[in-house]
UniProtKB/TrEMBL annotation:
Name of the protein in question: Peptidase M43 pregnancy-associated plasma-A domain-containing protein
A GO molecular-function descriptor: metallopeptidase activity
Tagged with keyword Signal: yes
Coiled coil: none
Length: 371
């Protein structure tokens, strides 16, 4: 039976209403997001990790370009959240990732009016493809929806180039780790309690042991040994583990209840381990899709003599500095060109001329998210 768009939207909102009525009262306990998709985890060899250590040291922190789309209903009503709330949560995420030498460059926030995507059913794979036309190329895309029935955040795959979160998560002042949690999945991290099942029924779970015959932390769970094994057995409001289960070797679990990739009470999750940081940096260095989101330390423009840009959209982005018209080459931006320049420091030298016409734009901004 084919449903028109208006009927489809109405049914989705009814479904969301009943899901909310039946959900557990704690926001933290209702969050679900993408996991292994029941397949073996991606494991990097020791040779790969070792070969990247020097590269990582030279190029850190890795700076990831991000772009935020906030959905609203057709006509602009029922906007998922505000720019101010987004900026606050981006800062929270930047703080959480800083110790792992990963920072972010927020290039833009825009509003898209689309009632269907503002109430986005991530369980429907056909709906997920509807996000594709709204991807901003060259950036890791963050989509904010008013509703994600059954979810507060979703990363779609591990790793991935885009994620979704709900507006109420962005607006929360006590739950500050969900955006960072979904970003972790995009950059290659699994849940600390991850497991998977073979077709023959064999269950793969991480044991607590970090030595001896029971040790399997390098190949099971989140494949990281500096995150203790986790059974997702429960965490109370004081961030204390409440589970009583034991692993296959009869050892009690003692997980990190404040780890960003755990579940439990989501007011607790704020930290990442060094192993998680190394894994994310390895994905950024080796995955071609993610590597495209990294920016250089410094950029000079123009490069090849005096240059005039009169049309098109361009981004000149760097971690530390962008130098405009440095030396003998000068830059002119006019006409309908839309040009964006952003880094911790943007230096505009004499000889630069910005004179965009109607429809054109020049944006020069500092980036506060890389210390």
């Amino acid at each position: 039976m084919l449903l028109n768009l208006k009927t489809k939207i109405a049914m989705k909102k009814i479904l969301f209403f009943f899901i909310m009525l039946s959900s557990i009262t704690s926001m933290a306990q209702t969050l679900k997001c993408i996991t292994h998709e029941n397949k073996p985890p991606i494991i990097f060899s020791k040779k790969t990790n070792d070969s990247l250590k020097q590269t990582n040291a030279i190029n850190m922190p890795y700076t990831v370009k991000i772009y935020v789309t906030i959905f609203a209903d057709n006509g602009g009503s029922n906007k998922a959240t505000t720019n101010e709330h987004v900026l606050r949560q981006i800062q929270n995420m930047a703080n959480q990732y800083q110790s792992q030498n990963i920072c972010f460059l927020l290039v833009g926030i825009r509003q898209i009016n689309n009632t269907d995507l503002n109430d986005h059913n991530v369980s429907d794979s056909t709906e997920n493809t509807e996000l594709t036309p709204y991807m901003v190329n060259g950036f890791l895309n963050i989509f904010v929806h008013k509703y994600l029935p059954g979810y507060h955040g979703y990363a779609y795959a591990i790793p991935n180039t885009y994620l979704s979160v709900t507006g109420n998560i962005i607006e929360s002042t006590d739950v500050t780790g969900i955006l960072g949690h979904e970003m972790g999945h995009c950059l290659g991290l699994y849940h600390t309690f991850s497991s998977w099942v073979e077709k023959n029924g064999t269950v793969h779970k991480e044991n607590v042991a970090r030595s001896g015959d029971c040790k399997n932390c390098e190949i099971e769970g989140d494949v990281l040994c500096d995150t203790p094994a986790d059974d997702n057995g429960g965490v109370d409001a004081s961030c204390i583990y409440t589970g009583t289960a034991k692993d296959a070797c009869n050892t009690s679990y003692s997980p990190l209840t404040n780890n960003l990739m755990a579940y439990g009470d989501y007011r607790c999750i704020t930290t990442l381990t060094n192993g998680q940081g190394e894994r994310m940096r390895t994905f950024l260095a080796t995955n071609s899709a993610l590597n495209a989101f990294l920016v250089h330390d410094a950029l000079y423009t123009p490069v090849f003599g005096n240059t005039t840009i009169s049309s098109g959209t361009g981004h000149t982005l760097a971690r530390e500095a962008v130098y405009i018209s440095e030396g003998s080459a000068n830059l002119t931006v006019n006409g309908t060109a839309r040009q964006y320049y952003q880094a911790k420091k943007v230096s505009v030298k004499s000889g630069t001329k910005f004179s965009p016409a109607s429809g054109g734009l020049v944006s020069v901004k500092s980036n506060p998210y890389c210390n």
